[in-house]
Predict the structure.
Amino acid sequence: SRRGGKIIAAEHPVAIERRNQEEQERMEAESITTMMRNPSKVIILNNVVGPGEVDEQLEEEIKEECEKYGEVIKVLIYELPGHTVDEEAVSIYLEFRRLEPAIKAVVGLNGRFFGGRTIRASFYDLDRFRNLDLKPTFAS
């Protein structure tokens, strides 16, 4: 064209980035809202460590960190044998003495970074936990 101009996006890149960030924050808020419909004294943490990264100190580290929210009465670490999806290979279950600290822990830990990973925290059914039914259902 004789004008010598160039075609640019109808929206400024900063505005697009801001809109994307707002959409992500909205989705995270909806996710927390959805989780709060079925709270439990038991929470499950995923993507804290990958396969083969469970060591002797992990249980104590996690318990110590989570006791900032309230008394933890049980910690179970379950590594799915032969699981290939890195984020889902290790599940850490924590039972709190009361419901309120479990809620605080899910809100405080979900989306938090640990060792270069983004933790996924959610509630887990108390009866399933007490029956050692540790087959996690992964949220997408």
Summary: The chain has four helices and six strands.
